[in-house]
Amino acid sequence: MAFSVDHEHLYIMSEKQLTxxxxxxxxxYETCSACLGSGDPHCGWCVLHNTCTRKERCERSSExxxxxxxxxxxxxxxxxxxxxxxxxYNVLLVLETYNVPELSAGVNCTFEDLSEMDxxxxxxxxxxxxxxxxxxxxxxxENGDHHIVQLQLKSKETGMTFASTSFVFYNCSVHNSCLSCxxxxxxxxxxxxRHVCTHxxxxxxxxxxxxxxxxxxxxxxxxxxxxDAPECSLPFRAATSLQP
Length: 244
Description:
Layout: E1 2-3, E2 9-13, E3 18-22, H1 32-36, E4 44-46, E5 51-53, E6 67-68, E7 76-80, E8 83-85, E9 92-98, E10 107-111, E11 116-122, E12 125-129, E13 146-155, E14 161-170, H2 178-182, E15 189-191, E16 196-198, E17 210-211, H3 220-228
Parallel strand pairs: 8-14
Antiparallel strand pairs: 1-2, 2-3, 4-5, 4-6, 7-9, 9-12, 10-11, 10-13, 11-12, 13-14, 15-16, 15-17
């Protein structure tokens, strides 16, 4: 057994044949965590190229945060807000980035195949704009009240996606009862007299009022829904007692 001159291959000799094998097979790992979790000392994550490779094959790998050799150096991304209604358009989204190299060449924000736009880099934050009306996914009742997409960052330098996080579009209007509306995990409100579920409480007239599942220990919402539709049979929920 012997190494090649460039130390990229290993020669293994048996009684009948000589076999040449690569020292590493970094390319089989598709994510930073899989790459660095493989235990292969030859492999690291080339961040803006979004690939697992040897350090010498990663362009500008000596620059800060360009090449990750430890799991804690993998790129992380959070977004605020992380969900919006399908009837909200061009909303400013702020993405907090961790372990990302400088992005002087620019970055694009993409919502899978829905839309792509320029991102604005401000320190360790990237500002993106949510899709326009025609690009927002349709959500129908059969598929629930929300749709999850991947919000991705694409380097203009390499043309590669190097970070992503889940983003939710929700649709309150698919709920046709007070209970299903206020039990939604999203910001849905029930307009009491028009029997409409909406993300915008201002769309409920002041006179009619609205019902919204409140935070904390409170069960009055069930009573409100019962008053809104007294003919409905509502499940009983025991009130939670508060300890002083």
